[in-house]
Every structure is written in structure tokens, then in C-alpha cells.
Amino acid sequence: MSAVRRAGRIRWADLRPRRAPGLPPGQRLLGVYPRFADNPLKPPPVIEGSLSLLIRGASDVDDFSLDVDDLAAIGDIERDADFHCVTTWSVRSLRWGGVAMADVWRTLIEPRIGDGRTATFVRAVGADRYNVAFTLEDLLEPEVILAWTLNGEPLDARHGAPIRLVSPSQYGYKSVKHLSTLELLHDQPRIGSKEHLRARVHLEERHSRLPARLVRVPYRSVIRITALLAERSARGTTP
Ligand SMILES: Nc1nc2c(c(=O)[nH]1)N[C@H]1C(S)=C(S)[C@@H](COP(=O)(O)O)O[C@H]1N2
Ligand SMILES: [Mo]
């Protein structure tokens, strides 16, 4: 059965993560896919008009934007992936539809930024100003996609409409919802206090300084309340 439900349908009883075979280290399985957020009290941002992704380049490149037609022209794909939040909940087999980030880079971004100063880091920013850093290499891994559908339906506001980044091999906090800007950088950016630059799930890179095993327990204790609050604050903003 699909883990994806509409807003308002997720209850406390649905949010008990359980042990399950085959999960990455320290992860537990949820049977539903809840909304989750940095600040769960904040409703998802309202995005006016159609999708447009701003590419902010280095000093020698003008900013430019990509719209949905530019992206869709690459040819859309669908990919199944599990999703792993750093707070230890996972959901299995989400079907994301959109375009591969690497294809966007090679066809729409790289040709416009010239070859003299190739970026080595990228900051991805959401319309709610949430932002995270990537090495360019991680961002261009073949499984990273810019998604606008989830399980065959248009992405809703809870899960990142109109477009989100999905990087399944990294903790969920890298999968920026409501993606608005990709900022190309030549130097390693400052990363958030809890963020790990790489955040690779199979290596359990949860936190930049604290050992992963140490943060599992406090993280696990906030899952249910965070998900419930995040779901509640999104009510009324989604169909
Ligand atoms: N714009 C934005 N993207 C975000 C977040 C956020 O607060 N704002 N939270 C991150 C975290 S911690 C997780 S686990 C996932 C949750 O995605 P979901 O709401 O689709 O479950 O989104 C990530 N992307
Ligand atoms: Mo998360």
C-alpha cells in the first residue's frame, strides 16, 4: 500500500517507526509519509505563478532562470526511491517524477556558465529560505532529481510544490522542498550547525560534529511531534 496520504489523514498512531530488515544503520520504518520540516509550525510557502528556478552563478556569470518548459524539454523520468530522514524515520518506495539533476546541469546550466570557472559546491535554497550545501559531485549523482510529481500526482505543498530536489542517498534534509534557487559556489560554503556536507545515509553521516549514534536517540524522540505539527500547520494550504 502506498505510504502517501493526503493532508489531515496522518494521525499519532500512524507515526510509530518500527524496526525492519534492510534499512540503513539506525533507521526505522514508517508506514506513512508525513510532512516534515525544519520549523514544523511554519506552513508551506505559497508560490504564486508558475515554476521558475533561479540559477545564481559566480561573479563572472549573470543569473538566469529556468522555467518548467525548459526542464520538461529534457524529458521527464520516474524513479523509485526510499526516503531517510536524519531523525531516523524512513519510508519505502516513493515514486518521484521529474528530471535528473545531472541532465539539467549538463544541458541547461553548464553550457551557460562557461568553462573557466566551474563551480565545485552548490547551495540549494527553498522558497521558505531553507537552504543546504552540496558538493557538485553529490548533486550530480545520477539518482538526484528535480521532482514535480509524487506517486503519479502533482507534488502537493506538504511535500514541496511546485518542485523539489530529491537526493535519496543523502539524509532527507538535503532534499530541499519548494526549490527556488541553485547558487553555484567555488569555495566550500558554511554549512548549518546540524548539517553534514555529505550526509550520506549508508555511512550514517547525520551530523557535522556529533557521532551519529549519539544523535539517534534525541532525534528519534521528536519524530512524532514534529510530523504532527508539520501536518497540522499545512492544513488548509493544500487541496
Ligand atoms: N524547503 C524546505 N525543504 C526541506 C525542509 C524544510 O523545512 N524546508 N525540511 C527537510 C527535512 S529535515 C526533511 S526530513 C524533508 C521532509 O520532506 P517531506 O515533508 O516531504 O516529508 O524535507 C527537507 N526539505
Ligand atoms: Mo529530516
Structure in words:
- The chain has a domain of 158 residues: Oxidoreductase, molybdopterin-binding domain (Sulfite Oxidase, Chain A, domain 2, Alpha-Beta Complex), CATH 3.90.420.
- It is built from five helices and eleven strands, in the order βββαββαββαββββαα.
- Strands 1, 4, 5, 8, 9 and 10 form a six-stranded mixed beta sheet that branches. It has a five-stranded mixed beta sheet with strand order 3-2-11-6-7.
- The chain is globular.
- The mean pLDDT is 92.
- With 239 residues, the chain is an alpha+beta fold.
- The structure holds the ligand Nc1nc2c(c(=O)[nH]1)N[C@H]1C(S)=C(S)[C@@H](COP(=O)(O)O)O[C@H]1N2 and molybdenum atom.
- The ligand Nc1nc2c(c(=O)[nH]1)N[C@H]1C(S)=C(S)[C@@H](COP(=O)(O)O)O[C@H]1N2 binds next to loops.
Task: Describe the SSE topology.
Elements: E1 28-29, E2 52-56, E3 64-67, H1 68-72, E4 77-84, E5 89-100, H2 101-113, E6 121-126, E7 131-135, H3 136-139, E8 145-150, E9 153-154, E10 164-166, E11 179-185, H4 212-221, H5 223-234
Parallel strand pairs: 1-5, 2-11
Antiparallel strand pairs: 2-3, 4-5, 5-8, 6-7, 6-11, 8-9, 8-10
Molybdenum atom (MO) binds next to loops.
